[in-house]
Task: structure prediction
Amino acid sequence: MIAERLLVDAAATEALGARLVGLLSVHRGGVIHLCGPLGAGKTTLARGLLRALGVVGPIRSPTYTLIEPYEINGVEVIHLDLYRLAEAEELFGLGLDDYPPERCWWLVEWPERGSGYLPSATLTINLERLSAGRRARLEGQATLIAACDFDRE
Ligand SMILES: Nc1ncnc2c1ncn2[C@@H]1O[C@H](COP(=O)(O)OP(=O)(O)OP(=O)(O)O)[C@@H](O)[C@H]1O
Ligand SMILES: [Mg+2]
Result:
């Protein structure tokens, strides 16, 4: 199933991220691919999700460390930013085995850089820059999309 949302500003992008909490309460883990060009809003969306989960303090993308783990209210999440991954094999050095997607949620910016070495996506979110705002396109099983309650405005 594909769902589309127009995000008029950064607050709308964060709010979409916050909606994903519904998904995290239905499944113990999974992989969310955050796609789109530089500045599309991937980190903003991840921040909205992490804030809604209860993470306090600054949330920046792990641009240099590539991985930032969180454990909050019994939910394990890793935020990956693979933009600076020189080759996909480098993923082996990140200790990802400690975060199996069966019991941990992965938020992956630039998943295409880890292509062939990442678990497949439970949900893919494509962000596209418009002249003003962004368009989000979500792809996943209908039950997953429904768990996010996307049709509630
Ligand atoms: N819907 C939106 N409308 C307008 N601006 C937005 C929207 N969503 C996010 N932004 C803004 O876009 C800028 C880039 O956002 P962000 O850093 O989240 O992008 P990114 O996709 O993570 O970039 P990168 O590829 O560098 O990791 C920020 O200033 C953010 O506030
Ligand atoms: Mg980012």
